[in-house]
Amino acid sequence: MPSVIHSTFTIEKSYPVSPERVFSAFSNSTQKRKWHGESRGMAVEEFAMDFRVGGHDRYQLRFLEGTPFPGTAIVNDTTYQDIVPNQRIVYAYTMTLGDNRMSASLATFEFVPTEQGTTLIFTDQGAFFEGSDGPAMREDGWRKLLDRLAGALAR
Predict the structure, then answer these.
(1) What is the pLDDT of residues 115-140, one digit of tens each?
(2) What is the C-alpha to C-alpha distance for residues 13 and 57, in angstroms, rounded to an integer?
(3) What are phi and psi of 78, to 5 degrees?
(4) Which of 16, 40, 91, 109 has the fewest CB atoms within 10 Å, i.e. is most exposed?
(5) Considering the domain boundaries, does residue 118 fall inside one?
(6) Which domain holds residue 22?
């Protein structure tokens, strides 16, 4: 079994709001925490954002009782590589579960205006390490997050 699995996936999702509104859901810490950080089964222990090129985000969530990893922390560390307001965000991120680094990825979000609103094109290029969630689970996780974003934008 290889010690690193490399994978790239792309998700396209349409939202019936402007690119500015979708971009704001990524750039505004209050908005992003609601759809990206807060979820059932997880307690938010840290959610810090520094949204600028070279800026660093850190989210630490802890699994609650009744989840697959009760009491275990999951940490997402992000460094922004490129930001073009209302058009593109590129960041490098790592995920750690407990004491185990699971992955390192490059994430690209493109905000494309359409007659109906915005098409978000998300691409994740990842290296998944031993014992990680793996590419299929990561893609599923991002699909769920982008669905939660849809719910947040509908409010």
Answers:
(1) 999 999 999 999 999 867 789 999 99
(2) 24
(3) -130, 140
(4) 40
(5) yes
(6) 4-38+77-154
